[in-house]
Amino acid sequence: MTPLMTAVDAPPAAAGVVASSTTPELGGVGSGLVSVVSSLTDEELTARIGEMEAWIRRARMEQLRLIAEADRRRVYAARGARSTQVWLKSLLNIDGPDATVRVRLATATTADATNTVDSDESGSAGRVELPVVSEALAEGVIGVDHANVICRCLSRLPERARGRAGEVERLLVEHACRLCPRDLAKLADRIRYALDREGVVRDEEAQFEARELHYATARDGMLVIKARLDREAGAKFVAALQPLAAPRPEEDGVKDPRTVGQRNADGFTALLDLALESDGMPRTGGQRPHLTVTINYEDLAATLQNNEITALGGAGTLEATGQVLSPQTIRRIACDSDVLPMVLGGDSLPLDVGMSQRTAPPHLRAALLARDGTCAFPGCDHPPGTPQAHHVRHWIDGGPTRVDNMVMLCAHHHRTIHTQHWNITLDRGRPVFTPPSSVDPDQTPQPGGKAAPVLHKHALEQLIPTPRTPLEDTR
């Protein structure tokens, strides 16, 4: 078998490049390399990948030794840099945090290192020596990410626990051979919580003080949110978001097409709907938190024909942000919202205010939920949340607010109905959805809603024969 990896002498290093004594040669270049790799069996390919990873780890340990020596000699000063980290960042064209990690590990895994560096991003400093980590790196059994986790853990041990640093290091290296860096970090957290209870409480308090959430409207009109939450608040957020952001079930073998980011955004939107519907939300001016949209009534009442607005409609306004919104989107929002008629004068000041008209009062929503479940759309298994009541014939267009003119839809399928223009009818009280030709050229109607008990009863009657009466038995 042609060797895939051999050790050869490296050429002299070019200016600005650090080279070690050996480099891997991959048995050829270009198409020759492809032919060599393609000739390997699955077992050989697997072994080679593992061997290459071990070689990379050993090479990284050799690089750490070189970095430690450069730091000891203060090579950075002769190059006009203010620190080894800054010099290394420029030399290797890497990010600053990566350079800091490499210098920190270099000084910690080299026995004669004399310098100390910040042990973590918070700025706490301490001398850390990692002889066991150094040996494991040299053998290629752990990676630099593992070593960084161990270094951070040991550097943050309290003074009274420093005597157990060697024991902690050996324990973490042993588990690093089996755990990925993320899982190793969880074990390191456990160890620190056991050995530094006062310190971790201070850390948690510091995290709480460092909490922040900022939001701003981007130029394209989208809201940008940036947040840093302490552990408790973060866990609450994840626990609330995960069930709402779960992938939708496969339909005809097709997986949920949304990206993880899109699913999280949809889950967050559903979370907001739940919060706004909650009676526990604080009131402002006697009103529950709500979304206020203003639009000219004629623009809102403009109907769709052939997927086009019949009149030249103006945009509405989101009062919370001052942004504009299309009449089509406002019609979807208005399906299950309070509509407050307000007459404005020529100067846009209110002249008269009518009574709000709720399109789906509580008793009607209860009836719709009993018939349709959370969402009547065929195949939808949206988790319990805040469904939206949709008028088959829109209320703005004169559609009545009755059970026989409404269906319950989750936010996703409510948007689908409006954007794709599905047709909904009610057949003996059960919703039937007809897709547009762009979805199904045959436009085959699909029954929706949850199965009613009477349907189950009819199905069971086909399996269980009707009991015979005593009179029939005597014949």
From TrEMBL:
<dbReference type="Pfam" id="PF02720">
    <property type="entry name" value="DUF222"/>
</dbReference>
<dbReference type="Pfam" id="PF01844">
    <property type="entry name" value="HNH"/>
</dbReference>
<dbReference type="InterPro" id="IPR003870">
    <property type="entry name" value="DUF222"/>
</dbReference>
<protein>
    <submittedName>
        <fullName>DUF222 domain-containing protein</fullName>
    </submittedName>
</protein>
<feature type="compositionally biased region" description="Polar residues">
    <location>
        <begin position="435"/>
        <end position="446"/>
    </location>
</feature>
<feature type="region of interest" description="Disordered">
    <location>
        <begin position="428"/>
        <end position="453"/>
    </location>
</feature>
<dbReference type="InterPro" id="IPR003615">
    <property type="entry name" value="HNH_nuc"/>
</dbReference>
<dbReference type="InterPro" id="IPR002711">
    <property type="entry name" value="HNH"/>
</dbReference>
<comment type="similarity">
    <text>Belongs to the Rv1128c/1148c/1588c/1702c/1945/3466 family.</text>
</comment>
<feature type="domain" description="HNH nuclease">
    <location>
        <begin position="363"/>
        <end position="415"/>
    </location>
</feature>
